[in-house]
Amino acid sequence: MDKVETLVIGAGVVGLAIGAELSQSQNVLVIEQNTHFGEHTSSRNSEVIHAGIYYPKNSLKASLCVQGKAHLYKHCQAFHVPVKPIGKVLIAQNHDEAEKLEAIRLQALNNGVDDLVWLSKQSQPNYAPDLNLCAALYSPSTGIIDSHQLMCSFITQIQQNQSLYVANTRFVKAVPDENGFVVYLSCNGEEMQLHCKNLINTAGLFAQDIAHHIEGINHALIPELRYCRGQYFTYQGKHPFKHLIYPVPEQHGLGIHATLDMANQLKFGPDTEFIDSLNYQTDATQKAKFVSAIKRYWPYLDETKLHCDYAGIRPKLTLSGQQDFVIQTELQHGITGLVNLFGIESPGLTASMAIAKHVKNAMQT
Ligand SMILES: Cc1cc2nc3c(=O)[nH]c(=O)nc-3n(C[C@H](O)[C@H](O)[C@H](O)COP(=O)(O)OP(=O)(O)OC[C@H]3O[C@@H](n4cnc5c(N)ncnc54)[C@H](O)[C@@H]3O)c2cc1C
């Protein structure tokens, strides 16, 4: 039977970041069920490098986002991954919202994000032209990134470190033995087995399903999975924005905000909708909702230029309230060598490299 020290299940940005990190000191195999890496959440997001503003103090999201942001900017420079630290403007449209922004500023400070600045009345039109607003905060360390190139750079690292990434290889089940796990795989439709000492489950929207196929796991420790779709509408035309524009956040997401991609295309979203199954179908009937949310802060929106584009799905663990990343090691589930990652929603792209270092440290303790 083939042997590998560590098997990573899932080649999204998090699995690949973990593969790149671990391959510096051990022999790693990253497997992906699809023909291409990153076809699920890692290619269906906003591609924003988040500053780490909103998350509760001492949460994994807060610490790993702030650390991950710093690692990413450095990594992008070293590996020539396209990135633009274009900053974002958080806008308030009335006094109540301005108070919420102040609470957000203090939360950010708690998380170590100390670079948020209030924009003066004079500078507001420069940073946030044509917008209805009464107050605005600017976050200079927020940026955008080419997530596909980022994933390519992780694969390059994995290969340079003599480890492997293979596509068309699906995890079927794992059975623990005295030295690790016997893992059953389906490679291009053919069944095979291999042995690994460590098993990292970073399968995103499939992580719960994978966990249910690891023998000996306590099923009560596997959190429920709730699909929460976020849909985007693209604006096909000229626009006045140089920075990302975010209204005050909502309960399950950041509100219908405006982001730019590396080609300066403007898009709005994602919205939030809980759905019953894994379905990336977009729903053009949501346009009226988008138009009304956008016009609240950008009254000049030409709605004929707004087109339904794509959707991503957040791996939520609950239908309400805040949730943190869940990273379970032997300490939680009692199985040596197994790491399960659940609920890696936003800011998982920003945090990917910090999650990788966190997993590496957790495996050593
Ligand atoms: C709408 C939306 C917007 C977002 N915006 C941002 C943002 O702007 N900034 C940010 O930081 N984060 C953002 N995120 C979060 C970020 O995209 C995710 O946290 C990140 O992409 C998760 O990566 P992953 O590797 O955990 O999961 P995935 O990308 O889903 O990868 C998991 C992989 O596992 C594979 N897999 C599953 N089952 C098996 C199996 N049996 N065998 C082998 N392989 C398997 C899948 O095919 C998949 O490729 C956003 C998320 C959403 C939904």
How does this model look, in words?
With 365 residues, this protein is α+β, with helices and mostly antiparallel strands. The mean pLDDT is 96. Helix 1 (13-22) packs parallel to helix 5 and helix 2 packs across helix 9 (348-364). The protein folds into two domains: 2-47 and 148-222 and 322-364, FAD/NAD(P)-binding domain, CATH 3.50.50; 88-140 and 226-316, D-Amino Acid Oxidase, subunit A, domain 2 (D-Amino Acid Oxidase, Chain A, domain 2), CATH 3.30.9.10. The protein has nine helices and 20 strands. 45% of the residues are buried. It is 28% helix and 29% strand. It is elongated, with a radius of gyration of 21 Å. Strands 1, 2, 9, 10, 11, 12, 19 and 20 form an eight-stranded mixed β-sheet that branches. Strands 13, 15, 16, 17 and 18 form a five-stranded antiparallel β-sheet that branches. The structure holds flavin-adenine dinucleotide.
Summarize the SSE layout with pairings.
Blueprint: E1 2-9, H1 13-22, E2 28-31, E3 48-49, H2 60-79, E4 83-84, E5 88-92, H3 95-110, E6 117-118, H4 124-127, E7 135-139, E8 143-145, H5 147-160, E9 164-166, E10 169-177, E11 180-187, E12 190-201, H6 207-212, E13 226-235, E14 244-246, E15 257-260, E16 266-269, E17 273-275, H7 287-297, E18 306-316, E19 326-328, H8 330-333, E20 338-342, H9 348-364
Parallel strand pairs: 1-2, 1-12, 2-9, 5-14, 12-20
Antiparallel strand pairs: 3-8, 4-8, 5-7, 6-7, 10-11, 11-12, 13-16, 13-17, 13-18, 15-16, 19-20
Helix pairs in contact: 1-5, 1-9, 2-9
The structure holds flavin-adenine dinucleotide.
Flavin-adenine dinucleotide binds at residues 9-15, 31-34, 38-42, 44-48, 50, 170-171, 202-206, 210, 230, 270, 312-314, 344-350.
